[in-house]
Amino acid sequence: MTTSLTATPTVNGIEQSRHLATEIPGPRSRDLTAQATSALPAGLSSGQRTWAKRAAGGIVVDVDGNRLIDLGSGIATTTVGNAHPDVVEAARVQMGELTHTCFLNQPYEGYLHLAQRLADIAPGDHSKRAALFSTGAEAVENAVKYARAFTGRPGVVVFDHSFHGRTNLTMAMTAKNNPYKQSFGPFASDVHRAPSPYSYRWPGGPDSAADDALAQLELLVDAQVGAGNIACIVMEPIQGEGGFIVPPEGFLPRLADFCRDRGILFVADEIQTGIARTGDLFACDHERVVPDLMTLAKGLGGGMPIAAVVGRADVMDAAHRGGIGGTYAGNPVACAAAIAVLDVVEKEGLTERARDIGDRIEAALTKAKSTNPVIGDVRGRGAMYAAELVRADGITPDPARVADVARRCEERGVIVLTAGTFGNVIRLLPPLSIRDGLLDEALAILVEELAR
């Protein structure tokens, strides 16, 4: 069975067309799932029933030979495209020269060059430093460590609907209980939660979301915790796992000013939004917000595990010698891949490409929303867009429909992801290497399944 576009090109030997060689999931994927049931712990479960074998451009090829259109990018990790030739070559060369030493024991140039590059391109014209890590959660933990060391304060403020990781501290910072936190406590202390300006669900309506949320933040910080006890406020410029919640225009600049007025550091968690994903190099650039510290991961490595904290030099110099690091932090192969990613973003104009992709997604979903009452809200920026699904009353979350739509899209050869505090959001994170025809075909299938 074949459902593909004609006269389509190939990327890395993979034809850029949707093709169903078997039912989804196919026999080989079903066999691997059965093996995983006996070999892997129950807590490790995948949202997809197909098993990937190869990927490039906008296509993932599974172990049964099916070609699926990729609207997930490994949760925004392969932003420049899976197995991008420039990234692969940089990693290959580095693998042949030096695989690892641990930078704290034996430094190497790649770490320094990537840190310098990140400090140069991060928002703001002040003196900056960068430290490298392996995962996003590790970057968030270390951003908090830097903030506490600099301010001498213990408290951390985060927001409803946030996601910051799965370590003990970052679980405490993450809002959603299940599946991220259930049964894993007790959690780190001195973490305080403020309302997020979730416009679609704000009780007073979207026009009051920013003002009301800042008023409640002020009450929390000044009256309940005490500003002098808070080291940092951490926020995703667009909340990812919470459902691609875009704060109202002006909220982030006002939040940064709020922090500055109280000597609190503003930490922008750009792990999912950073590296061209939202149509700017960093999501903070959209409103020219300059955070004190910024965390990066996911798209930075082109699929390789690497993360970073970038920020004010005086803040990052506050940690004592030997107080920051990790065995694999800033691995040389991952550093080489990350430098290549930054080159590809610049060379291929991927911030502009993300905006083009966003325009196509917004047009398709907005048109669908106009005739489909189950689509309660369409929101996002650049190649980071979502549709929130609701029941007939127009507001009650409908997670069952989301799960059903995602399953049926996969059966038709389209990978979409789900998200949201209530599990009722379809989120789209296509690789910026996807071709317009593939994207439009995938969106057409998604819209059809939303209408069923």
Description:
- The structure is a single chain.
- This protein has 452 residues and is α/β, with parallel strands linked by helices.
- The chain is built from 13 helices and 17 strands.
- The strands form 4 sheets. A 7-stranded mixed beta sheet has the order 6-12-11-10-9-7-8, with helices on both faces.
- β3 (52-56) and β4 (59-62) form a beta hairpin.
- α4 (109-121) packs parallel to α10 and α7 runs parallel beside α8.
- It is globular.
- Mean pLDDT is 96; it is low at 1-6.
Strand order of the largest sheet: 6-12-11-10-9-7-8
**Straight-line distance between termini:** 23 Å
Quaternary structure state of the chains depicted: single chain
Number of helices: 13
Beta content: 15-25%
Order of helices and strands: EEHEEEHHHEHEHEHEHEEEHHHEEHEEEH
Radius of gyration using CA atoms only: 22 Å
Shape: globular
What key phrases describe this protein's structure?
452 residues, alpha/beta, seven-stranded mixed beta sheet, 13 helices, 36% helix
Report a brief summary of the structure.
By secondary structure, the chain is of the alpha/beta class. It has helices at 27-39, 73-76, 85-97, 109-121, 136-151, 168-173, 209-225, 251-261, 313-316, 332-347, 350-371, 399-411, 436-451, and strands spanning 10-11, 14-15, 52-56, 59-62, 67-70, 128-133, 155-159, 191-194, 230-235, 265-269, 293-296, 307-312, 375-381, 384-389, 414-415, 417-419, 425-428.
SSE topology sketch:
Blueprint: E1 10-11, E2 14-15, H1 27-39, E3 52-56, E4 59-62, E5 67-70, H2 73-76, H3 85-97, H4 109-121, E6 128-133, H5 136-151, E7 155-159, H6 168-173, E8 191-194, H7 209-225, E9 230-235, H8 251-261, E10 265-269, E11 293-296, E12 307-312, H9 313-316, H10 332-347, H11 350-371, E13 375-381, E14 384-389, H12 399-411, E15 414-415, E16 417-419, E17 425-428, H13 436-451
Parallel strand pairs: 5-15, 7-8, 7-9, 9-10, 10-11
Antiparallel strand pairs: 1-2, 3-4, 4-5, 6-12, 11-12, 13-14, 14-17, 16-17
Helix pairs in contact: 3-10, 4-10, 7-8, 11-13, 12-13
